[in-house]
Amino acid sequence: MNTAPSSPERQALLRFRRNRWAVAGLIFLLLATVLSVFVPWMLAIDPNQGSDSPFTAPDGRHWMGTDIHGRDLFSRVMIGTRISLMVGAVGAGVSLIIGVGWGLVAGWRGGRTDAWMMRSVDVLYALPTVVWVMLTLTLFETRCVGWLSERWPSSIPAFRLAAMMVSLGSVSWLTMARVVRAQVLSLRERPFILAAQSIGVPPVRLMLRHLLPNLVGVILVYLTLTVPAVVLYESFLSFLGLGIRPPQASLGSLIADGASQLNPVRVRWWLLVFPAGLMALLLAALNGVGEGLRSALEPREGDGD
Predict the structure, then answer these.
(1) What pLDDT shows up at residue 102?
(2) How far is 174 from 156, CA to CA, in rounded Å?
(3) Contact of 64 with 77, CB cutoff 8 Å
(4) Per DSSP, what are the bridge partners of residue 66?
(5) pLDDT digits over 38-94, tens only?
(6) Which residue has the higher pLDDT, 225 or 115?
(7) How far is CA 154 from the centre of its chain?
């Protein structure tokens, strides 16, 4: 019988598979992504096309009912899910590039460079995140939208969405930078790093070929935990009217539309329940996958197979 110990990667995969919450979250995320991409195309329904049937309750034709303009809510929820996930993924990607680069340089250089770089992180931590993003988006509106409207007016929604993704990513990298720096400070005293330095390996090559591969696990964990935070920020901004603009839709803007229709005379529950419920499930799934990766890649002492 083969008694050879399994590889660390296989052990991590087995730990992840034993986490039912993480596996269920991953399956739900994959399902939501596939549905948000293909269902609007398969239904051949324009999510921005109004009709003469506003506020229709869910039925066989409109599975999630219609909104105030008679638009099919199911197709708009699918489009909103796609946009929210895209914002989360791109924002986390921006956070990955900035945070890993900042933490690598700060941890490797040390001394005054490290002190200056990490004090900058502390200053940014002190700034309210939502206020900073709102300021950035407002600056984009006042400086760029007017210029774009004269030259490429059709590109304004895409540029607005890109500005939001970059703005959210630009404030989501701080924790990543701190975590990466702490790991680099620990790794740079290891024998294999000292050996590489002694034979004259250039610093950039040493960081990319020797340090970075040993940081993949912790980077992946914190990256998956960054995505739900970015999605939640986007939803909050869209709820306030500072994010996705009509006729585009994200889950945050759909929740805001549903909340505006709550009144004591008639409750059109479907306008709020479906987008808010899907948002809650998405955030729970993303956090479940992140925690599952954390427990799989960073096992506690005594967590054996």
Answers:
(1) 92
(2) 29
(3) yes
(4) 72
(5) 887 777 677 777 778 888 888 888 888 888 888 888 989 998 899 888 888 888 888
(6) 115
(7) 26
**Predicted local distance difference test score (pLDDT) of residue 3:** 47
One-letter identity of residue 145: V
Question: Is residue 71 a contact partner of residue 48, using CB atoms and an 8 Å limit?
Answer: yes
- As a whole number of angstroms, the distance between CA 76 and CA 54 comes to 14
| Share above pLDDT 90 across residues of the chain, in percent, rounded to a whole number | 12
Q: Which residue, among 283, 290, 278, has the nearest Cα to 231 in the 3D structure?
A: 283
Contact 49, 81 (CB under 8 A): no
Partnered with residue 72 across adjacent β-strands are 66
Q: What residue ranges do the domains of the chain occupy?
A: 8-45+65-297
- H/E stretch holding 70 reads none
User: Phi first, then psi: what are they for 66, rounded to 5°?
Assistant: -125, 165
DSSP element (H, E) containing 19: none
Element (H, E) at 101: helix 73-109
On whether the CB atoms of residues 283 and 232 are closer than 8 A, the answer is: yes
CATH of domain 8-45+65-297: 1.10.3720.10
Which tokens in the block code for residue 297?
């890649």
